Amino acid sequence: MNIKKFYNKNWKKLMILPIFLFLLSCTILYSNYLSTGEFINKDVSLKGGYLITIKTDVELSEEYNSRELVSVGSGKKLGYTVEYGGNNIDEFMIQLSAEAKSNEYSIEELSPSIANRFWDGTIKAVSIAIMAMSGVMLLYFRKLVPAVGIILAGISNIVNTLAVLTLLGINLSSSGIAAILMLLGYSIDSNIVLTARAIKNKHQKLDERIYSAFETGMTMTLTSIVALTILYLTSSAEILKIISVTLIIGLLFDMVNTWIQNAGILRYTLK
Amino acid sequence: MRKIILSGRMIVLIFFLVMSLVAISPKPFAEGLEITNIEENSSAEFAGIGEGEKLISINNKQILSFNDLNDLNLNYGSIIDVETSDSNYQLIYTGEFGFELDEQKTSNIQKGLDLVGGVRVVLKPTMDLTEEQVIDTLDLLEKRLNVFGVSDLTIRNSQDLEGTNYIIIEIAGANKEDVLNLVSTKGVFEAKIGQDVVFTGGKDIKSVCRSVECAGIPAQNGCYPTEEGYQCRNFFRVDISPESAERHGALTDKLSVNNGYLDKKLDLFLDGELISSLFISENLKGSRTTSFTIQGSGDGINEEEAISNSLEQMKEMQTLLISGSLPYEVTVERVDLISAELGESFFSSAILSIILAIFGVAGAVFVRYRSWKISVPIMITGISEVVIILGFASLIRWNLDLAAIAGIVAAVGTGVDDQIVITDEVMKGRKLDTTWRERMAKAFMIIFAAYFTMIVSMLPLWFLGAGVLRGFALTTIVGVTIGVFITRPAFAKMIETLK
Q1: Do A72 and B353 count as a contact with CB atoms less than 8 A apart?
Q2: At A93, which CATH number?
Q3: Interface membership of A140 toward B (CB under 8 Å)
Q4: Chain B neighbors of A114, CB-CB under 8 A
């Protein structure tokens, strides 16, 4: 009950937190833009180049842009995924396979033009997804403010998550984009629970309604985080790791953006 | 318990589970290699080997995997003993067996390239094609690539948001160079006498011989040492159309004889490049012959390598002759080479991860509600969703790749969210004394809003780029749809009855 009291007393002051986080994230992305020319660091799947998966038990030196692959259960090292953006792949592979003492590898090659096209498509896909979701929300709640609140929470989640990924030095990949869209879906889930309970249960007081939604929504978010943590720890597949780590970061922000930011917006407008 | 199982919603769930298991038809103990396709006119066909037979041994060595095949060290042209589940056969080894092999399937689930290994090529036509032209190109590419075995090949057309066409080819277990050669060669084959065309690849070719009698490496003086190593000649017979034979008759009639040969040669061109010139013997002057022997060669640092390269070159020529030239030129946009061995460990890892995650969810739910009567139904529902998604994928022959596995995770994850909404509405409803119908109406209002937003956010992904994440979008959409209409109603019934 302490959370409830604390929140009821301080909900206005707490609103500073999501606003601060949003501005901080924008600053991080903008400073990345100033230093690298891009808001988000993209990996080879979005900007073109080579992605090599090599099977080895040898330690690779720092000069490679690589990530380690580890087996489930045994924790045994399987090999690495290595990114290469240069244009002499044959020489690079000779060097890499000599250092890794392994000839078992796979190479994914992506031409910059298709990568750019994919990136433009992505921006469009995400924008269309957000617009379509806003449409569904407007139809569902038939009120402007709750629908806008939900979309704002979704956008804040994305911006915050991208900023953390930039800070951690994780490059955005095509699987990362899948994760961003999944994040949008999850964050909408918890926000719909909040908004639906807040505006549709008329026989309780507003703070009671928000609290009951809070219980449900937090259970949802926490079970998702538990499941994704297990997924992250047990899988060696790059795509599952990227999706789970992006979603965990996003869901942590979702707690703030749903239960402080969006709940605050609802309180202002529904009183 | 009885009340739950006999309720309509549970019967629907059980029905779909059974159907899915039938569609997947798991055979966990299957092992070894199966013969999937017999090449026409091959010595395997003459020996009478049938499709679907299981390969047991070659030259009395047991064969359980493709690695066992590589360890055999067979000699070109030697007679080998092949034992299958049905019978024993003897055939001539011509650098290949004349049949294709596939690992025996442990279920009907088709795994994507990143799980089984192979080559994925994304091609872009150099100009805008109409739908019909795209289909022509796909047909032709399929004809060429069938060299690698029909069962493991998918060719499809994909469009991105700007409407640009891409052709995506996925071949399991093939070699990158072979595939690239076959798809990026325009393949205009012309046989000319002087400036006049006698026949071209494609429609002028009636058949190409692939059996030992009329194709292969000549038994005498087929291979010989060169300065760099070895070279091996190859030959194969082609039968051409009557119209082409007519042209040959008319053209050779005008030529004069010189030392037993005609004074002009038959020049063979591939994409404008002269690949060989054949002498025409004097008795062919004016003849309407329909048979020609095409020759080629391959080099290697030793005899073995020269034989295999020469046969490789022959096979490529045969394929290009039969398929004809690509009607529209394509550029290679992207090539992925995916190694199978990493794929195998990826797959077991992904499956294990999903099962562990479902257990984790059940654990977390138990911590919140302190009741197995909610945890157990959540586990049952989660696992049912995975089974039904896999069943659906087997039924429509959808290739499950890692992106699709991520989609399963997304669908099961949203499923758990929805189940928590149902549980909370039911629990609260009991306190507030509302009816079952009212509680469910409230829960499903939220669930449907979430469902439609999920669908609209996944649809753009379906059209994105060259469709790399299509598997993800499709599995998510299918998964949440199965959830909303099949498993979630059953879940609601379970927790209502188990209170």
Answers
A1: yes
A2: 3.30.70
A3: yes
A4: 122, 124, 333-334, 465-466
pTM of the model: 0.72
Domain that holds residue A31: 2-43+112-270
Give the domain-ending residue among A110, A139, A163.
A110
Q: Cβ contacts (< 8 Å) between A104 and chain B: which residues?
A: 339, 341-342
Q: Which residue from B161, B333, B416 is facing A121, i.e. has the nearest CB?
A: B161
B354 touches chain A (CB under 8 A): yes
Asked whether residue A198 falls in the same domain as residue A240, the answer is: yes
Q: Domains (ranges, CATH) in chain B?
A: 2-26+340-497 (1.20.1640.10), 33-103 (2.30.42.10), 118-185+330-338 (3.30.70.3400), 189-323 (no CATH)
A227 and B465: CB-CB below 8 Å?
no
ipTM: 0.81
* DSSP classification of residue A104: -
Question: What pLDDT, in 10s, does the model give residues A99-154?
Answer: 888 777 777 777 777 677 778 877 887 888 888 889 988 998 888 888 999 999 99
Which of B119, B421, B455 is the best residue to mutate to test the A interface, defined by the most A CB atoms within 10 Å of its own CB? B421
Pick from B337, B368, B460: CB nearest A128 = B460
Same domain for A199 and A146: yes
State pLDDT tens for residues A180-234. Answer: 888 888 888 899 999 988 887 667 788 888 888 998 999 999 999 998 898 888 8
Structure tokens at A244: 């789970």
